[in-house]
Amino acid sequence: MTTLFINDQEVSVPANTSILEACRQHDVDVPYFCYHPELKVAANCRMCLVEIEMNGKRLPNPVASCCTPVNEGMKVRTQTDMLKKDRKMIMEYLLIHHPLDCPVCDQGGDCKLQDYTMEHSTSHGRYLEPKRRTEDKNLGPFVSTCMTRCIHCTRCVRFAEEVSGTGDMGVLNRGDHMRIDSIVEGCLSSELSGNLAELCPVGALLDKPSNNQSRPWELTRHHSTCTQCPQGCDIIIESRDDEVIRIKHDPNGAEAWICDRGRFVYDAFRSNDRLLSPRIAGNDTDWATAIKKSVGILKGKRVGIIFSPFWSVEGLTAIRLMHDAVMHDAQVAFDLHRRDIRAFAFEEGMAMSSAAIEAADEVVILGSDLRQRLPMLMQRLRRRVNKGQTLTRIGAMNYRTNTKLNKDALIRPRDWPAVIASAMQQLMGINKGATGMEAWLKNITDRHEAGKLLADALLADSCALLVGEEIRAHDDAAALIHGIDLLMRATGHGEAGSDGRNLIPEGMNASVLSAVFGDVRVSAGDLLQAAERGELDALMLIGSDPLGDGLFPMEARRVLGKIPLVQVGAIAGEIAKFADVQLPAASYAEVDGTFINMEGVVRMADKPLRSLGEERPLWKVMMRLTDAMGASKTPVVSLPELRTEATRFLPSLADVFAGKIDANWRMPVARNKHATVLPVNVRPVMALDIVSRFSLYREGAWARASALLCEAGKLFCMADVLVHPQTLKDLGLDEGACVIRTASGEYTHHIGVRDDVAQGVLFIAKRGAAGDLSSESVANMRRV
Amino acid sequence: MISSDPSKVTAICFDRINIPNMHILDVAKKYGAYAFLPTVLQEMDGPKIISEVKTSGLRGRGGAGFPTGLKWSFVPRNTNKPTYLLCNADEGEPGTFKDRDLLRLDPHLLIEGMIMAGFALNVRDAYIYIRGEFLHEANVINAAIAEAYAAGLLGERILGTNYSLDLTVHRGAGAYICGEETALIESLEGRAGRPRFKPPFPAVEGFYQSPTVVNNVESLTTIPAILEHGGNWHSQIGVPNSTGMKIFSVSGHVNKPGNYEVPMGMPLHVLIEEYCGGLQHGDVPKVIIPGGSSTPWLGPEHYDVPMAYDELHKAGSMLGSGAVIIMDETADVVAITRRLSHFYAHESCGQCTPCREGTGWLERVMLRLEAGRCNAQDLVVLEEASRHMDGRTICALAAGAAAPILSLLKMFPDEVRSYLTESKVGGG
Amino acid sequence: MSTTVDTTQMSAVAFSAQQQEDIRALVTRYPQPLSALLPVLHMAQQHFGYLPMNVQQLVADTLNVTLMQVREVVTFYTMFKEQPTGTYLMEVCTNVSCMLNGAVELLDHMCNTLGIQPGETTPDGLFTLAEVECAGACGSAPVVQVNNIYHEKVTAETMDALITNIQTGAETGGVA
Ligand SMILES: Cc1cc2nc3c(=O)[nH]c(=O)nc-3n(C[C@H](O)[C@H](O)[C@H](O)COP(=O)(O)O)c2cc1C
Ligand code: SF4
Ligand code: FES
């Protein structure tokens, strides 16, 4: 620690802290533009000047506090006559070329330049010469530019280099011809682009969709949790009255940014796809009629329920309560991305915090498009690589990470057993086996060299495995995960303290899902097949869209429209066409709810938005239905009661609801130590493995209801189906239309080539076009 | 030959400069090049060399005048990172043209100096960053390096010793700012030459985050003589605190402009009258810029100032790079200042607000002043903006931009006033 | 002028096998390949005459860096040209020492002789005239660089002779 004096007040900060950080940490106001705690220091705006005195000597000139480290005994002054003059002068320089257009600028009211002008500047500038000319850029659907307002702080350039990793912003020219420029016409190729508008301290980069919609002072801010991915970032929803104007990152949240999916999904709130009133056969009706109709469909019937994992803890508990009270025979499924429903040796969720993963000695991504799946975690990994740490990936596609991978292996999903087997063999060779390995290896004779990458990484002191969708969705997923569990135990990464087992879940509240539904869940695919076979009489979809998402679109297509359907949710979507009754449930922004993210971090949303229509919180809908179905007693009638019920499934929630946990508390990931599933040695009869892409712009009913995300999805799409050029060659085929044959039939698709895809893999890049193929895991291909 | 008697030394860097074909290795060797190198490599070591250089009192000849031995001693040892030696041959400071002669006429002296410095600092890779315009000079030094490699003076195991050094010439591409040592490093890393803030200092974290020493050509070409004759010998040349010889690049209104290597501390008028053939017009200069265009101007009252660090500082200016620009009574000081403002506006790297916006602003006001469209209020702007640019930016370019304007306003208020318009409106 | 790049509109250019070999050798001189950017750009400009976007893309691909990194560098350094220049680039230093020794008058004279202003190229494409910063040869002011060959203590007469020689083909002024 270093002790210094800031305006005569003695403070202590860690050695090498910058003076500016020391001031910030002690609430001493020092103005600045270019500094950003998450970005490398640039020290170019020169606004953060302070005066210092060292060893009793006052330095003749002020220093930039952002790039000057503290020193023992240093005396810092932040308010002196000299600094007043300096700040005035810097403001004058910055305003030389800046237009006087605050009244029409969206940044107005939330602008550093404007604020500092009031605080540090004089009312008029003395610059009389011609102003600089600038050129605006088309930065795609999310960011608009007004470069006359740019103050050259280079935050955006540093962001593109360090955070998004795209490097598509830069500084051209020099002197006062210097300008910020982008390289691509049309779009910033980043899933984090929306942050640029927040990052820009002035109105040069603005949020395009909300541009000219409002002024900051008209808005109400609601703290909430984004449920668009398992990360569950803290967000601020800004609304005018009850209309969502935009979503921003929460400066007090755990992550420094939010992704474009979480941010721009906001237009789905007021889209036509919102389900805002009860409907029967597509026509608005009142609640009583709709409930009655639902009861008619469901009561005494063999029902299948598929719900989305993104509901709050309260919503999910209410589904279970309804199930137990009035539908205990119903089949329940929630995961559209898992074929193998046997217990996994470690449950979904992250044993490590994002920060711990970022800091681990080794990180291995196993079969995941992390940039699309968990943009925030990917961003942390990028930062890790920038610091010179390693990153390894094994998977079916060279998914763009916008960072440098140290080790990378392209494999087919069918190679996973061989990869794990060779890692086991390598470890056993150096006496690092674990009981169970011999049995696991018995059936697997193939070995894959990518196993070495895995084994080598496991030998590090700390190793984070990020097990992704390619493994989760595998036909033999439980066996693969057991195998990985053995590897982790063998290398000492299987226990609390050094646990590196992170299974990327499909939704928020993963730990809640396994606790609340572990004993009753079935596979969504099996459920839909049962319906097709006539073993179910009715379906209930609660926020779930099996047509648009997941691995069973074909099964869903064969069933929907042929079976009575009750839809409950906030977004109507494509499912609406098939629903006999629709019951509106409030969205994540409109409820008091508890959310537990993949790391086990608990967030409670309060101060919700008021409902737009007649929708009700899911738990109320469930209880009303339960009542109407003839329950002897309504399970719960209030939120506190509901929460008490939730603690039955998850006892640790009691402390959460009682407010007895501290900020660092995380719900641990459940373990199934006895889930010893051995791999089966099946050799697929078909030549190609199907892997389907998860696009953050397209996946999920909310994203599909967002015109903004849909537009971005179009901009960032690839060919419908991709294969490696060698794969085509091996099959004697050419690029273009081909027939894909699966167990369920033949489909003609346009095939693109890309050497990013593992050989022998059929990569479904555009699910909108080729989504049905996702239902299968293997295929053959031939000429049209 | 350089005399081992300090009082008899007439030249150090320029000792062989007038001998024809000195850039050819055989010729250079005949006149003593590399003769002392084996002794250095075999009988000296890093600490000993650094201590000699410290004793010599040598101060960097690139402009800042930082003691060379002290700079070398800041390089951390055993960091398990390589140490780099970069020769600053960017020579961009207006008025400076000494390094060019050293590069094209006696390149082996620089190579020898770099081998010795590299050996002292345990450097494996060294670079000469030469301004892009010096194409001929780059070709000459490249040819000399090729000869040196062939003769076993560079590369693996120099002269059979355990010391190995690779030397590469790297051409700039037209940017004055790349003479600033951290901008030079950025440029050598393949980026725009935008200076880095300090700390960290290059000696600790420079080229690719490794310890790095940047030295001017003239500083490095002084090293062989210091090692051969001893630091003590060098410290007796010149005056206290400004030891050794110094090449002054004299230009402007003198009859015999050129590079003159003389002992530090020589009074300016001696340099001008005895070496440069006196002024083109009149007896005393109207303006003396003693150390390159970024140094504050001196007036005729300082014509006898001793050309040494402390004395020039006392007079209100700096020794800088030793580029003496002399203006006689015919000089149009407003036009000259306007031209220099253009230089700084053109060369500002653009990152610091005061420099980016200030240099352009100053140039435009100066243009207006020259055109007779300024009023007294504009002079206040010139002065305030210039003052603010001094010492508030990442590098010293902004201070350099301020120097001519502040000098003009201070030394020639009447002349400046004569340019003002009667009208009270600003202009535009 | 729009400066954003539409990379799909760029025609393909390439380095010769020898140049590629030279670049590989160059890269080994530095701790990291990016350091070779300036030398490779010099080489590309020498070969292609100037650095249009497709050449910048070629350099980016060759060194495995982004186009933005190349553009930042090309636009920062004055010796790199994004627009073609005349066969003879005449660069007149008008900085202080040259100015004190008649550079401004010399430049005026050249404008008259060539019939163009600084920044312009003669209609026959032979000469581009430019006013530049200190060339580092102030002791022999005024200084004019012709394709980076220094001409020192230039007078109106010696300049006229040089121009005539170039026009009549008697002088190649550094052009191979
Ligand atoms: C704007 C600016 C331009 C500079 N240009 C040069 C230059 O052209 N040549 C040079 O040797 N030093 C130049 N310097 C000084 C260098 O930053 C550095 O101090 C010097 O190269 C160190 O070498 P020395 O200690 O041997 O003098 C410049 C400094 C500044 C601020
Ligand atoms: S002072 Fe000027 S030249 Fe120096 S770093 Fe700042 S902007 Fe660049
Ligand atoms: S915040 Fe320190 S210079 Fe910008």
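Residues 333-427 of chain B form a domain with the de novo design (two linked rop proteins) fold (CATH 1.20.1440.230).
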